[in-house]
Known about the structure:
By secondary structure, this protein is α/β, with parallel strands linked by helices. It contains four helices and four strands. α2 links the parallel β2 (about 40-45) and β3. The longest helix is centred in the first third of the chain and has 18 residues, at about 15-35.
Amino acid sequence: MGLTHLAVHAPAVAAKQERARRKCLERLLFELDQRDVIGLWLESRQAVLNRRDQETVEAARGSRIITRKLNVKHAQPVDEPMLWLPDAVAGMTTAVLRDNNVGWLDTLGAACLTIQL
Length: 117
């Protein structure tokens, strides 16, 4: 499809999953902004969790980690079918990092940049 995939991973224990998500989102926002991306769709979760994501975005803007050109919205996969793609890439990169299953790297090739925090 001519896409470049960017996967950001942070080790997380169950009790600190939201913190790990926030740290990954901060880095993802930075990386996308640096690449002049102007739109990001996140998979919608519960309203309170979506608000936390938006607070992370606003904090990144406030601390000048990202500019205002990056627009971040939430959507349901039923409304935005391309949301399946990040799940697939995340699954493949997690398999590589967790299980050392390097076969998935062949599938993604040079089109995937993985950042571990």
